[in-house]
Amino acid sequence: MKLRYIVVLEVLFAGGLVGILPLTVPASHAATPQKKPAISEEASAAVMRMGQTLRAEQFSFQSRTIRVYTGANGEPLHIVHTDKITVHRPNRLLVDRTGDDGVSKLVFDGKTAIVYSATDKKYASIPVQEGTIAGLLKEAVQRLGIDFPLADLFTDVPDKAFLTGVTEGTVVNTVTIEGIPCLHMFFVQPPGIELELWVEKNDQSLPRRLIVSYRTLPGEPNFIAEFSDWNFNIHPSDADFAFQPPADATQVQLKPVAPPPAKGKAKAKGGKP
Question: SS3 letters for 66-119?
């Protein structure tokens, strides 16, 4: 599952438009011959250490993201969110969000994902047949045509997920983020996607910043994420991943963001989940 992102979506509810969660349309990928990856040993080792750290059974962190969406007149605009994310592998996920479009939440208990907008007091459920975080991501792609911007961090092999499709990678330099030395790395993913990743320069290689730039799209938009408050000593219970709707909340049905492609026609978006 290759997940790179450019556009913020508002999920269509039966009662109207409600902005929810870190859900976006994946960039369209044209079929391009792949050459042998030219990734430096230092960059490859840093990403591998990051992947090993993020394979932990449970952890939490905070992300602050700035993303692009299209305004009423086609102009590129930006929206900012702060997410507190709790992961319990293989089948529990909690995202608490605050942002420009209000307060919202995603709760996944291994069977059902609940998306809840505290701002609009509406919620909807998505059954997840595979019963895993990976299954949740797949359901989001197949049923709604949307992805989680930071989903590479939740896969079974985060380093492999991040490097899928990448053909070049190198370490740019060492910088300091909040007092911690970090490797600044640059990667190329054809066609026209550039990735900058900052990870701590230590055995954990925790990600601290990610910027994805789309050089072949109008205006060359990008996605920016900053990470903090990593905690691998948490012990969440099943109750932490259970959703109890408030008394004044209304359950609604999620509508697909687009109809399925006509028989015999290619999908509009590239890359299978």
Answer: EEEEECCCCCEEEEEEEEEEEEECCCEEEEEEEECCEEEEEEECCCEEEEEECC
Given a contact cutoff of 8 angstroms between Cβ atoms, the answer to whether 226 and 64 are in contact is yes
Q: How far apart are CA 66 and CA 147, in angstroms?
A: 16
**197-203 long-range Cβ contacts below 8 angstroms, 24+ apart:** 197/47, 197/162, 199/46, 199/47, 199/49, 199/50, 201/174, 203/49
pTM (predicted TM-score): 0.82
Alpha-carbon gap, residue 140 to 7, rounded angstroms: 15
Q: Write down the pLDDT at residue 154.
A: 86
Structural domains of the chain, ranges and CATH numbers in brackets = 5-28+35-249 (2.50.20.10)
| Tokens at 229, concatenated | 């408050």
Mean pLDDT by 10 residues, the chain (273 residues): 40 35 40 68 98 97 92 90 95 95 94 93 92 86 65 90 95 98 97 96 98 89 95 96 95 68 36 28
DSSP secondary structure letter of residue 268: S
What CA–CA distance (Å, rounded) separates 238 from 95? 15
Query: What's at 155, amino acid-wise?
Result: T
CB 204 within 8 Å of CB 53: yes
Taking the CA of residue 33 as centre, how many other CA atoms within 13 Å lie in the half-sphere pointing to its CB?
1
Note the pLDDT of residue 93: 95
Please give the Cα distance from 16 to 14 (Å, whole number).
Answer: 6
List CB contacts of 83: < 8 A, sequence separation 6 or more: 22, 62, 63, 64, 65, 95, 96, 97
Residues for the chain: how many in total? 273
Q: What do you get for the CA distance between the two ends of the chain, in Å?
A: 4
